[in-house]
Amino acid sequence: MIHVYGIKNCYTCRQALKWLTAEGIDHSWQDVRETPLPEEKLKEWVDIVGKEKLLNKRSTSYRGLTEAQKQQLDGDNMDEILGLFKEIPTLLKRPLFEKEGQIVFGFKAPEQEKIKEMSA
């Protein structure tokens, strides 16, 4: 089963969920605003792909951060980085697809192919 993380009012997340259903891909959904991610899960993702790949610098949330918060994200203090991801979950790229340690971000054609491979 592929676990999908995002926010319910994100157009791309809604499209991804419709596509997964249409493709018959078994999946679960978690709105990261309604059900916050545990710090352990965030740390696992950072360990797998790195904080740079998790961070959505094009998001309104990122643009709204103070300079001090942006410096925290650029720093090496993992507690501060995870704290910001936990406090502001919309800083994460989305949708995020996860299965057995494999992670895919986004929902363009290349990602769709990776998701199909993950589901096989």
First and last CA, distance: 10 Å
Structural class: alpha+beta
- Unreliable spans are none
Q: What order do the SSEs take from the amino end to the carboxyl end, as H and E?
A: EHEHHHHHEEH
Kindly state the percentage of residues in helix. Answer: 40-55%
The biggest sheet, with number of strands, parallel, antiparallel or mixed sense and barrel status, is: 4 strands, mixed
Task: Please compute the radius of gyration using only Cα atoms.
Answer: 14 Å
Count the E strands: 4
Helix count, DSSP H or I runs of 4 or more residues: 7
Tell me, rounded to a whole number, the average pLDDT.
95
- Percentage beta strand: 15-25%
Strand order, biggest sheet?
2-1-3-4
The general outline is: globular
What does this structure look like?
This protein is of the alpha+beta class and 120 residues long. The chain contains 7 helices and 4 strands; from the N terminus they run E-H-E-H-H-H-H-H-E-E-H. It has a 4-stranded mixed sheet with strand order 2-1-3-4, sandwiched between helices. The longest helix is centred in the N-terminal third of the chain and has 13 residues, at 11-23. The chain is globular. The mean pLDDT is 95.
Topology:
Layout: E1 2-6, H1 11-23, E2 27-31, H2 39-49, H3 51-54, H4 60-63, H5 67-74, H6 78-87, E3 96-99, E4 102-105, H7 109-119
Parallel strand pairs: 1-2
Antiparallel strand pairs: 1-3, 3-4
